[in-house]
Amino acid sequence: MTISSGTHTNLEANVWKCVGCSVYAFLAWDAGDDIERVPLHGANQFRFRETSIALTAERKVMKLQDYAKYLLCLFVVNLSAIHCEGHVISSSIDDQIELRQERGVLDLLFGRFRTCGACLCGRPNRKAARLLGGENTESHEFPWLANIHVKSKLISGVLINDRYVMTAASQLIGTTAPDIKVSLGEYDRCTLDISSANFSVESVILHPEFNPEAGTHDLALIRLSRPTKFEKRISPICLPNPGSTYLGQVGTLVGWTASKPEDKADTRTCKPRKLGLPILGYNECVKSGIDPMNFNDDYGCIGIVGTNSLVCENDVGSSLQYRSYAGIYDLVGIIPGVNKCDNVPRSTVFTRVGPRLDWILQHTKDGCYCTK
């Protein structure tokens, strides 16, 4: 069952009048050609002429639970009636709730995913923001950074809840859970930090559409062997808002440069680095030198048109973040394994996280999330 598009304005205008009552007059049902909508003169209502079927009383009344969800979606999440209807109105064919891209946020609100009490996500340990030029971060500035040990190499990841870390799938090919260790609350990985929290890994989930050759859907979820306890130096980043592209905003690229045993003398790999670059749209990405044949909706790009990429193969797994005016960080993307440092003018490609919210939330139900 869906709401007729012509009634959305009336819905928002009259929704408060119907709190606590059965919802009949201001809802319109979509039952194909079996029902004709005839507007009443001088009233913001619809009456229905049934032609071949009789709607039962259950079909005519929005369930109280669904109605409460609709109100919460409309006035708390502040989505439009068009978006909210997909979450709370049952289908006229199979009576199933239609879930759209916004499902992830609503799932959090409606209890399908656990929250971790009063904790907050996306809060850095540095209040003031400034233009970033590729310098080291301050100590534990980004408390969601994860240092991932994969056999003999070190890569970056990002903590999204109390149980899961996200990184690039391309860095985990040919590995199993026992091959991976994760450190949280770490800053200088060239020194021994006894205060960091170290975890073994219980399982690894690669995106089902990950293509190692093409580099698409280069995302992986790492399930820690136990939940982490949040504190000043360990807390998660926020997942992106559904549908947000962050185009035109300045993104912050954060992570350690991946290191190998032969890189021990390279101090640039010791501390995480941050770099601020604008998030570009498709046309700007192509103008910057990215091959349109290999650039699809899976990707976004950051950089300045006419300049070389500042991100190389060793930066795979680093996270692209967006800082809101309130100082809260959202996870925008993960750096995949397709970027090259070859002195050719080209922007940097990242794997977009937003379109994969359904997959992320589906596989992290046993973790608890912090709120914004």
Average pLDDT taken over every residue? 74
Broad shape: globular
Characterize the main sheet: 6 strands, antiparallel, barrel
CATH superfamily of the domain at 249-354: Trypsin-like serine proteases
Helix coverage percent of residues?
Answer: 10-25%
Distance between the termini: 32 Å
Structural class: alpha+beta
The count of helical stretches stands at: 7
Question: What's the CATH topology label of the domain at 249-354?
Answer: Thrombin, subunit H
String of helices and strands? HEEHHHHEEEEEEEEEEHEEEEHE
The parts where pLDDT drops under 50 for at least 5 residues are 1-62, 76-80, 86-104
How many β-strand stretches? 17
Q: Identify the CATH class of the domain at 249-354.
A: Mainly Beta
**CATH architecture classification name of the domain at 249-354:** Beta Barrel
Q: Radius of gyration over alpha carbons?
A: 24 Å
Fraction of residues in β-strands = 25-35%
Strand order of the largest sheet: 11-12-13-16-15-14
What would your notes on this structure say?
One of its GO terms (molecular function) is serine-type endopeptidase activity. Keywords: Disulfide bond. Belongs to the peptidase S1 family. CLIP subfamily. This is Peptidase S1 domain-containing protein. The protein has about 375 residues and is α+β, with helices and mostly antiparallel strands. Among the domains are: about 145-235 and about 355-365, Trypsin-like serine proteases (Thrombin, subunit H), CATH 2.40.10.10; about 250-355, Trypsin-like serine proteases (Thrombin, subunit H), CATH 2.40.10. It has helices at about 10-15, 55-60, 65-75, 80-90, 105-110, 280-285, 355-360, and strands at about 35-40, 45-50, 115-120, 135, 145-150, 155-160, 165, 180-185, 195-205, 220-225, 250-255, 275-280, 300, 320-325, 330-335, 350, 370. Helix 3 runs antiparallel to helix 4 (about 80-90). It is globular.
